[in-house]
Amino acid sequence: MTAPPSPQPKTDLPPEFAFIRRHFLALAGPAALNLQDDAAVFSPPQGREMVMAVDAMVENVHFLPTDPPDTIGRKLLRCNLSDLAAMGSRPEGWLLAFARPPHITDAWVEQFCAGLAQDQARFGLSLMGGDTTSTSGPLVLSLTIVGSVLPGQAIQRCGARAGDGLWVSGTIGDGALGLRVLQGVEPPLADPTGHLAERYRLPQPRIGLPLHGLASAAMDVSDGLVQDAGHLARENALHVRIQADQVPLSAAARALGPAWQEVCLTGGDDYEILFAVPPEREHQLLSCPSLPTPYGVVPVTRIGQFEAGVPGVSVMDGAGQPMHFKAKGWSHL
Amino acid sequence: MTAPPSPQPKTDLPPEFAFIRRHFLALAGPAALNLQDDAAVFSPPQGREMVMAVDAMVENVHFLPTDPPDTIGRKLLRCNLSDLAAMGSRPEGWLLAFARPPHITDAWVEQFCAGLAQDQARFGLSLMGGDTTSTSGPLVLSLTIVGSVLPGQAIQRCGARAGDGLWVSGTIGDGALGLRVLQGVEPPLADPTGHLAERYRLPQPRIGLPLHGLASAAMDVSDGLVQDAGHLARENALHVRIQADQVPLSAAARALGPAWQEVCLTGGDDYEILFAVPPEREHQLLSCPSLPTPYGVVPVTRIGQFEAGVPGVSVMDGAGQPMHFKAKGWSHL
């Protein structure tokens, strides 16, 4: 047998492989098999159930082309982590589909991945696999998140009963206001500390919120508090009544005055957790309205109550009168 | 307490929810929790490892706007199933991110989902979750596939040794030729039985190919046989020599004559399995070159051999001379 001829085709990697190796290999965990294989392989953590979700973000729909690429990566991961948090589950890994238009430069991708590296370390997970492709349209990012939970401990949207309190973590409305700060509405919205813009760009997924044994139902607030509370109520065949003046607002949001209340209540991009608590479990929370997480103590607030009645949501003002909103919340189609 | 006021906002579902319910609910398995929750929850099959991959398809890049929507859905699922097949693993479920441009009608989505329903039944898996969003660009579909395998039995790309034979399932080149049939090259390519077009639109993922205990390494052929064999060789730090006249072609491909050989060898869209077999395990395959799967007996063919040498691939013609190709294979960036 003769010596092998020169390899043909040449050994340079096709652009796709070089791209993956250059940008994504540093993010890969053991399950990713160096991103060289057809699929990731991992052992599910002993005695736990798997929790999985996918969330896509599209340029000009979910983020602004002028947003810093590192915060786009981090927001993409955090929105998915918020889904895990709502189920009371912990992160294990993630996969990414990246449809790249020509205007997304290597420098952009580098910053995007730097943001992901920072947050995957913070939240204790790593890249398992992915796919890159070209597109003539806007950048489309689809992230699949993989988590786990002890059997039977996933908190679902169904489970609330009439009489349960409606609670929410953190503050509501900052993200929606932050978007308007960044979009530059007229007259300009005051955001002297940058808190609102920061909350739009970098939501805080409530990973580790101890919902098991406390909440009868939970979901994350991403499409607007009022709309999402309506979903939670309808999926439990209940009515939920929200007291608008109980909804927790940040100092930055309060400073803008009551004209912006509707945006806070319906605007979306909160990534807080909305959850139902049976009355017998509310006493402790009412006396100390906060919950511990590995990322700090998270304030929680009782904003309403589930009751029998027409399935859906109503919002009452401080005088006990029903409020009406122009916006119904965010729909993705 | 007064009776609850009329729900506000109204109880009609936002378009996104109605869209998901109308089209995707029928595909959902138990893990999907009726597609109402933030994430899917499932128990990993006892004593098995999880296998996961994501593949995206973009309109005008991976499929033609004129392709029937049902075959687009089926091809998307089958390409992902091919990744599982290459790892010797079995399907468990899938998630979908759907970035929908305005020109994708409800009727289109209905046919798309009908195709998915047909194939998820055929291959024994169900929808676990997903996300839908709007886009101003082309339709982007990202499918995450979830499979499982007995611990340690996943077949990876690394593991081949010098002396191992290079084998491939089925036939090579039909998909690439089928694309050219459908694109309408001049002069037109003969496809009297429609076999080539069918193979482009509906690859046959080799789920259940019994690679464990047989193959030392495997991958699926999606970007062109020559390029993918080069990857397999380089990832094992080996040279692989392919005998072009041993590469199995369908009767429809052979009928087109030798002018189309290069397209077959480099064109991609095969979704066959390329695998390495140590010499001591080849005897049985050489005497009966086929393998059983739940979807029928699959012919397999020895097309070359791994050897020490410059990492990469060479392709020899029937006279033992190295062949040179214009096309290097398919890159997605």
UniProtKB/TrEMBL annotation, chains A, B:
Mg(2+) 4 binds at residues 38, 83. GO terms for molecular function: ATP binding; magnesium ion binding; thiamine-phosphate kinase activity. It catalyses: thiamine phosphate + ATP = thiamine diphosphate + ADP. It holds the Pfam family AIRS. InterPro entries: PurM-like_C_dom (IPR010918), PurM-like_C_sf (IPR036676), PurM-like_N (IPR016188), PurM-like_N_sf (IPR036921), ThiL-like (IPR006283). Keywords: ATP-binding, Kinase, Magnesium, Metal-binding, Nucleotide-binding, Thiamine biosynthesis, Transferase. Residues 37-149 form the PurM-like N-terminal domain. Residues 161-308 form the PurM-like C-terminal domain. Catalyzes the ATP-dependent phosphorylation of thiamine-monophosphate (TMP) to form thiamine-pyrophosphate (TPP), the active form of vitamin B1. This is Thiamine-monophosphate kinase. It comes from Acetobacter fabarum. The gene is thiL.
